[in-house]
Amino acid sequence: MHPLAIETDRISSRLLAAEDEKLYCGLYTDPETMRFIGPPLSEAQARRNFEIALAHNRREPKREVYLALHDKGSGRPLGLGAIQGIARHAQAAEVGIMLLAPYRRRGYGTEGLRALISKAFAIFPIVEVHFRFFAEHAVVERVALTLGFRRRGREGGPSQGEARELWSVERTGWRSHNE
Fold first, then answer.
1. Can you spell out the DSSP letters for 109-162?
2. Which of 31, 14, 30 is nearest to 22 (CA)?
3. What are phi and psi of 169, to 5 degrees?
4. Buried b vs exposed e over 71-85: b needs ≥16 C-beta within 10 Å?
5. This prediction's pTM
6. Residue 60: φ, ψ to 5°
7. How many Cα atoms are found within 13 Å in the side-chain-facing hemisphere of 101?
8. Would you state the pLDDT for residue 160?
9. Residues 108-129: tens digit of each pLDDT
């Protein structure tokens, strides 16, 4: 297992690879998946971004890490996970997860995010992890609260489309809440 991969009771992962293009593009072009993330991408935009994600995975030192998530029992694809914006000078990173429709609202999101955050704190010299999502997304807000995140503010507004909530958790708070 790659040192940046995550593993939980139900999830296994590996660094995003060429064979994950269909999964990546399918998620980023799907209006239902993107409903609380941002506008769906065109197929061409998704393919370009996929190539950029692969390039990030090859770079050293890591500033972004993209993972393909799989169901540990069946080996079926679940979705994608990412640790992004790894800013050593700011000692922070951002995490995110996208799941295929059959795996949403089944606890995979919380389980995957918990593992991503633990990995980010274990591998990178950061003291804080950020998590952004569209405001008024009650399900994701419950996940953030469950994981011990605190609301830090709101970005954007009516003229910029949907407002986004910024939440974060510090390393010390993470340890006391999740380990």
1. HHHHHHHHHHHHHHHS--SEEEEEEETT-HHHHHHHHHTT-EEEEEE--GGGSS
2. 30
3. -140, 140
4. beeeeebbbbbbbbe
5. 0.88
6. -130, 140
7. 8
8. 46
9. 988 999 999 999 999 999 999 8
